[in-house]
Amino acid sequence: MEAEIADLLNLLELEQLEVNLFRGESRDVGSPQVFGGQVLGQALSAASATVAGRVVHSLHAYFLRRGDFNAPIVYQVDRSLDGHSFSNRRVVAIQHGEQIFNMAASFQVVEEGLDHQIDMPPVPLPEELPDQSAPPPEIVKYMPERLKQFFAQPRPFTFRLVQAFGSERSPAERLDPARQIWFKAVGQLPDDERLHRNLLAYASDFFLLGTATLPHITSEFEGRLVMASLDHAMWFHRPLRVDDWLLYAMESPSASGARGFAQAGVFSRDGRLVATIAQEGLVRIKRGT
Fold it and tell me: How many CB atoms lie within 10 A of CB 189?
């Protein structure tokens, strides 16, 4: 197993301190605060550890404060419901005595029912696209130092962008608020549906909010754009594997009030819709220089 994905699995393996109480370590991925996907994945791991015989089908989370990657995070789980078919959990993430995140998650016994879905958008296969896990040098050179560090870090996922980072467009060209990205884990993983859903939660925080900025990216905003996740929701529709290619088909219906909203469908390589994701975040232009 590749070192990066092995480290991620260790990151999602929480220490149990007491009944319903867990502790997770953090990683500095080059962002100013703990990566939101890490907190999502760890919170879902904590909730899943208190549920037997059921898998998560939805979660709704709020990011309240910046996480400090130099300190562990404590996750407190409330067992709200264990019914005949569904279990509900509430998770609060605590750091330095304050809540930094909270989440509600629902788990369901696997059962059969009505089945339909939308079609996967027509895109090139991942093998037909170059590895673009990091932006090209001509874009990186304009990034803040911390963002450069973020893209320089080895990652547990590889990415193939259907639309390039935009280095070849003219300054006056307005991009559509939509993009598609193939991604998968860099190594083979165990056959554990819970693990694959936890890992998708981690990966779902890559790229999504940035879709809301695509029509607005200009040199005027270089170094002045402030972005942070506010809330995050996921619905898991079908079994999935993150060690096989998944298509992240994102679009941003709206940006207003210093907030951007984006939503996405996640499709397996054979076209099955495995998850739907939505996120709203702060998208603010700093005044002055």
Answer: 17
Read off the pTM. Answer: 0.91
Question: What is the share, in percent, of the chain residues with pLDDT greater than 70?
Answer: 87
Helix, strand, coil % in the chain, rounded to nearest 5:
20, 35, 40
d(CA 266, CA 204): 9
Q: Which of 38, 204, 268, 279 is catalytic?
A: 279
Q: Which amino acid is at 126?
A: P
CA angle 93, 95, 97 (to 5 degrees): 105
Q: How far apart are the first and last CA of the chain?
A: 45
State yes or no: is 229 an active-site residue: yes
Among 229, 231, 243, 268, the active-site one is: 229
In 3-state terms, what secondary structure has residue 289? coil
- Residue showing tokens 């016994």: 109
How high is the mean pLDDT of the chain?
Answer: 90
* Neighbouring C-beta atoms of residue 76, cutoff 10 Å: 17
Question: How far is Cα 77 from Cα 19, in angstroms, rounded to an integer?
Answer: 9
User: DSSP string spanning 90-156?
Assistant: EEEEEETTEEEEEEEEEEE---------PPPP----GGGS---SS--HHHHTTS-HHHHHHHHS--S
279 given a catalytic annotation: yes
pLDDT in tens, 39-90: 999 999 999 999 999 999 999 999 999 999 999 999 999 999 999 999 999 9
The position carrying tokens 């803040």 is: 144
Give the residue, 168 or 182, on which the prediction is more confident.
Answer: 182
pLDDT in tens, 130-159: 887 666 665 666 555 666 666 677 789 999
Set 26, 204, 205, 268: catalytic member: 205
